[in-house]
From TrEMBL:
One of its GO terms (molecular function) is hydrolase activity. This is Alpha/beta hydrolase. Coiled coil: none annotated. It comes from the Bacteria.
Length: 222
């Protein structure tokens, strides 16, 4: 009888608490103030109902959102990756992410244990969010998305905290050098160029070339 009661209590405890390594569509109901949290924002093509859309315009193939989430998941942190609706306004969504991050901090999570990350349109959203969180300086990862962050009409947008940029050498979105130059208050700014020959499509799938250094960087963040 004692064993049955103990087991029941354990099940209730686990079901009421999210476990690191899980993938969430939004903030988990119960926040662990000692845990790490990572937000991944997908590219524009995934907006809508299809988690595996195929690019036919540039020949970049299928964007495998489910596989990317699975590859980015890690036992050292909670991964939050929402499937955005079609036509989502990036500025409004950046405000939503800003609110979610501040909710974590209000519940005791250290800003250094929070990473915001995005690819392409998601990278633009991530940059906007980092700018809104300038007072916290959470970790920021930009994946092939510096183009819009350095356009003339967005010259006021800067990133903060520890920053990692990853881009593909054959992709016209290119380096984040200009973003790094204007973001004068970052704690660090590291950039990695990958060489897959797949242009923007290199980030449509969970290739080790970008997934491995991204996860290593997240887990090393303190």
């Amino acid at each position: 009888m004692i064993r049955l009661i103990t087991s029941a209590v354990l099940v209730l405890f686990i079901s009421g608490h999210s476990i690191a390594g899980q993938v969430h569509a939004t903030l988990p109901a119960n926040i662990d103030s000692n845990a790490k949290y990572v937000f991944y924002s997908h590219g524009y093509i995934v907006e809508g109902d299809n988690p595996k859309p195929v690019d036919t315009r540039f020949g970049w193939g299928m964007y495998d959102f489910p596989a990317i989430k699975q590859a980015l998941a890690d036992s050292h942190y909670h991964l939050i990756a929402q499937h955005r609706a079609k036509g989502t306004d990036p500025f409004e969504y950046a405000y939503t992410l800003n609110t979610q991050v501040r909710t974590l901090v209000e519940q005791g999570v250290k800003p250094t244990n929070i990473t915001i990350m995005g690819f392409s349109r998601g990278a633009f959203i991530t940059g906007l969010t980092s700018d809104k969180l300038s007072d916290l300086g959470v970790n920021t990862i930009i994946l092939a998305g510096c183009g819009r962050l350095v356009w003339k009409k967005h010259t006021d947008v800067k990133v903060y905290g520890h920053v990692l940029s990853v881009y593909e050498k054959t992709d016209k979105s290119g380096s984040c050098e200009k973003l790094a130059k204007k973001s004068t208050e970052t704690q660090s700014f590291r950039e990695i160029a990958i060489h897959t020959g797949l242009s923007h499509g290199a980030f449509y799938r969970p290739l080790a070339a970008w997934v491995d250094p991204v996860k290593a960087w997240i887990n090393a963040a303190k």
